[in-house]
């Protein structure tokens, strides 16, 4: 089913601080006028379970219901639909832990119907060897050309960039196209002044840099909380050091946020300047949040969404009487991974 089209810009009637937008926030405005041909405005669900626990109004931004099962459909669609024909004809290549790959493939598949048959392309997708079997199988079923390389997203990205340069293909980054349209939707879905904080899972930083840039431009009083698994909190450590670090990551339920931060990424500066607080959570806390949400409200999310849920639960006493949004960034989870989460949650 085709996603619904919005009848007017999400930004109608808003006043911007300082009379100007950052480059990333500007991109969000541009994306909001293009992407809804291929993605949908996801629901903002008030969670009774989390609201009761925190004695607050806790809302879930349900990106797990996005067209490809995660927020990645937004950035990939905007980037691919912005390419020139020559760039598409040279061939498209990306890398991903899974969700961006699904989104990238979806966006590429829309090119012939939106632009014409000459825009048809069969993209090449690099993934780390640790990608979930559910995500890899779904990509193969859709006819994707897959290359598995390395143990995390940084190793896969380096190889994808090298291969793209060698073959003169067009490389599409999994995170350097920030996802600011989520913030635009949040502000349109909650009455003005009724949002105090947003909890955002962080890997390469595309999601949080987009959200924080838009909020800084429109609602700077809203606090932005960066959420990472303790087993792979590379971006947080880079921010604390003030530079990109080459740090190891351990296995985590949050495979969508696992791995390092690439040198030169546009997301690092917003993470340094616009993220108000950082919270990390252990694997049993991620598992408990995932299982708790499924049992309480029947909503199934993947590990990276479990991270933002767990970070709220860890800090819930700070938000009594407040209104918070928690970004449930994806719902692409295998039965085996959920079974592992259930086991961890009960130990």
Automatic annotation (TrEMBL):
<dbReference type="InterPro" id="IPR000634">
    <property type="entry name" value="Ser/Thr_deHydtase_PyrdxlP-BS"/>
</dbReference>
<dbReference type="InterPro" id="IPR036052">
    <property type="entry name" value="TrpB-like_PALP_sf"/>
</dbReference>
<dbReference type="GO" id="GO:0030170">
    <property type="term" value="F:pyridoxal phosphate binding"/>
</dbReference>
<feature type="domain" description="Tryptophan synthase beta chain-like PALP">
    <location>
        <begin position="37"/>
        <end position="330"/>
    </location>
</feature>
<keyword id="KW-0456">Lyase</keyword>
<dbReference type="InterPro" id="IPR050147">
    <property type="entry name" value="Ser/Thr_Dehydratase"/>
</dbReference>
<dbReference type="Pfam" id="PF00291">
    <property type="entry name" value="PALP"/>
</dbReference>
<dbReference type="GO" id="GO:0003941">
    <property type="term" value="F:L-serine ammonia-lyase activity"/>
</dbReference>
<dbReference type="InterPro" id="IPR001926">
    <property type="entry name" value="TrpB-like_PALP"/>
</dbReference>
<keyword id="KW-0663">Pyridoxal phosphate</keyword>
<dbReference type="GO" id="GO:0006565">
    <property type="term" value="P:L-serine catabolic process"/>
</dbReference>
<dbReference type="GO" id="GO:0006567">
    <property type="term" value="P:L-threonine catabolic process"/>
</dbReference>
<dbReference type="GO" id="GO:0009097">
    <property type="term" value="P:isoleucine biosynthetic process"/>
</dbReference>
<dbReference type="GO" id="GO:0004794">
    <property type="term" value="F:threonine deaminase activity"/>
</dbReference>
<protein>
    <submittedName>
        <fullName>Serine racemase-like protein</fullName>
    </submittedName>
</protein>
